[in-house]
Write a structure and sequence with these properties.
2 copies of one chain form a homodimer.
Chain A (H helix, E strand, L loop, with lengths): L3 E6 L3 H12 L4 E7 L2 H11 L3 E5 L7 H10 L5 E6 L4 H9 L4 E4 L4 H12 L4 E2 L15 H11 L4 H8 L3 H15 L4 H10 L6
Parallel strand pairs in A: 1-2, 1-3, 3-4, 4-5, 5-6
The structure holds a DNA duplex (30 and 30 nucleotides).
Chain lengths: 203, 203
DNA sequence: ATAATGCTACCTATTTCTAGGTATTTTTTT
DNA sequence: AAAAAAATACCTAGAAATAGGTAGCATTAT
């Protein structure tokens, strides 16, 4: 019987070793390598072509989602399962769009883990299901609005932002007005909190 | 030969299993229990009195530092090793002050891990050494200042916060002034960004 | 016991932001 | 080509926050 060849990439060595040991118990799984660095992981995966790669999102060098995208783009035969601490619909969607075969939270238990790996090996996809909280309206900010918020996050005043982006102060005010209206927020702290809760990044 | 009895608490089950398996390989170590919840862990530890408890900082119920403090206070014989993702001098100092025997990063490798456990078992203390990057000033916010920021994050005005916390508006303003001075931030968005970057939570 | 820190409170002039609007131009979508 | 969305700009009154102070009292460390 052909063993499932698995590669692991996570910046926390403890997770790597934990997974490794978890997998070594299984006699249909063979561990082919690991890395704590995204760039190294990508190279390794391209070279070793494991059946499955378990990739953390946050890694030095290159994040797991970018690696996924690139592997998919290069038509690598390796199926990626994203490992994440975050139950975040955007990450999950990114993972799906970038061609991953799975998205698992790090607090997944051993049984589910192994089940997921076996399912993915047979070509099925398994994505963590997000709870109901995702029902609330999503907020869409325009690129310009995000620009403004980014500048605000750096402590800029309307005037400074206007200068920076070659706008009039009134325009900056209008954008901020629109942002407040869209988000229903009353001050900047509240705005950032809501953006964080809604999982909106300014890139 | 007496085996070292170890308890593990971490909200990420993967870490728990990883550690568990890592330890099971060692024939002088015996695993006596684990939990993903701080409160449960504390009870378990008090009851089972393991030789060593590996505690995560972030856990639902009760954080590892608080547990450490309480175990020390109750003169528990269990020696605590804090497990953390953060190379943060404040956490390390807390761990020391609360009577922990060790502070290890989660990306510690297996060898160092086992070494640390054995050292701690003999009564030695082992704390992660922080790199030079810790040169940048750390920001210490007082509980009251955190209260104010929390309220601000909920979109409250100074007046509303004053009412809420039974303070005068002037006092709220003073706190905000001090917060700005401490953090070197110019507006609320900037403040929240800096707090995030510095890994400061408002609890 | 002394020092340091944290929390509280006040004052004033100035700056910044908000909440209502309206309105033109550019870009994107259909 | 028409419609929709995004980005731009302006006005005004009023609300809110800032920057510069000073200072008393309570609690915690040393």
């Amino acid at each position: 019987m052909k063993k499932i060849r698995i590669y692991i990439a996570d910046d926390h060595q403890l997770i790597v070793e934990g997974l490794q040991r978890l997998l070594l118990d299984q006699d249909d799984i063979i561990f082919v390598g690991s890395s704590n660095n995204g760039l190294e992981a990508e190279q390794d995966i391209l070279q070793k072509e494991p059946d499955i790669a378990l990739l953390d999102i946050r890694m030095p060098g290159k994040d797991g989602l970018k690696i996924t995208q690139n592997l998919f783009h290069l038509q690598s035969p390796t199926k990626v399962i994203i490992l994440s601490m975050y139950e975040d619909i955007r990450y999950i969607n990114d993972a799906k769009n970038f061609g991953a075969y799975g998205y698992l939270l790090k607090n997944t238990c051993r049984e589910e883990f192994l089940e997921a790996i076996h399912l993915v090996q047979t070509g099925k996809k398994i994505f963590h299901k997000i709870e109901a909280k995702q029902t609330k309206e999503l907020i869409f900010l325009t690129p310009r609005e995000k620009d403004i918020i980014k500048e605000l996050s750096h402590g800029k005043t309307n005037q400074e932002i206007a200068d920076e982006l070659s706008l009039s102060v009134q325009t900056v005010m209008t954008h901020r007005k629109n942002i407040r209206a869209k988000t229903g927020t009353k001050n900047l702290a509240n705005l950032l909190l809501v953006l964080k809760e809604q999982g909106i990044d300014l890139e």
